[in-house]
Amino acid sequence: MQQQTDAVASWWRQLAPALREDLLTLGPAEFLPEHLVRDLRAFAVDVPDVAVALTLGRNTYAVYAQPPVLQEFLRAARVWGQGWREP
User: Fold this and answer.
1) What is the pLDDT of residues 19-32, one digit of tens each?
2) DSSP string for residues in 5-65
3) What is the pTM of this model?
4) Are 14 and 24 spatial neighbours (Cβ–Cβ below 8 Å)?
């Protein structure tokens, strides 16, 4: 589990500050967009293949359930508040 937490922390550090702020408002039952899932997986974070296809007009998008390690990380980041944010 620690390896997964470290991977999420590495992923988090490379995110733009605005995206970090957006993620801190994400509820635990909300989905992640496909591009963030690809990024997490590139950092070796296990993201379950639980996806929902969302169709808007002619476009179809996949969104994924948040992995538990990300939920825990975001919960901790909210507690620490300013410590995770860029100055």
Assistant:
1) 999 999 999 889 88
2) HHHHHHHHHTS-HHHHHHHHT--TTSEEEHHHHHHHHHTT----S-EEEEEETTEEEEEEE
3) 0.76
4) no
